[in-house]
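[step 3/7] fold_predict: job queued, chain A
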Amino acid sequence: MRSLFAALLLAASAAAAENPLSVELISEVKAVAPGETFTVGLHLKPPAGFHTYWKHPGIVGVATSVEWTLPPGFSAGEIQWPAPQAVKMARYAAQGYRDETLLIVPLTAPKELHDSQVTLTARASWMCCGDQCHPANKVPFSITLPITSTATADPATKPLFDRFREKVPQQDDAWSVEMIRQPKSILLTLTSKQPTLTRDVTDLGSLHFFTADGQIDSNGEQKITRGPGQQLCIELPISDESPTSAHLKGVIVADQSWHKDGKSTALELP
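[step 4/7] structure written:
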């Protein structure tokens, strides 16, 4: 179903005159050092009423992607995705970003660099949707940085990277996770192993599970039960296109942090 909707949206939007999404390739460092790993990011800023999509958009939408053309010896890691938000494409619930976001990518330089500067080139593809959908395919971006013996952070961009790095979901050993597959749903149970550290489940606020592998129907109802004790149960509707798996990949996003003194509101399943 998702792939069908994606194809229809691409076809319907092919004639869009101007893409409303603001996109910029930025670096966390002012210079590149030989052999060191540094981070760059694709900064996405949709206008009010529009959204982009997470690494798994749900039953509709197209995830943002990046293809790199790098100088010899350079390598790119996987995108570090900030926690998603629930978005709507027409009447269907999907997974994406209503607000600005930064898709963070680690890059590693070779141990020997003989030039004075380096140019990093990316081709980004995305879907930005509001009352209409606006696709973009392999749009080129580039950034040129000097090469020095030691990489230094760029004070103009580092706060932005720090802010969105905190939004990247993390696994947490303080919570145990159990999954039970039922005929039409998956029962996910989280239990605190360190209740003195973790926030009481009644204080987490609203909760939403985002599927990272398509097993869960992003448009279906999620039933949440809190307790007894420090236990949380979420009954998740299985997607019609769900792959059969003994594992469940996804992220649970809460209003409040999962630790009493923590900041992260996004918990990645182990």
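[step 5/7] annotate
Residues 2-13 form the longest helix (12 residues).
Residues 2-165 form a domain with the Immunoglobulin-like fold (CATH 2.60.40.1250).
exit 0
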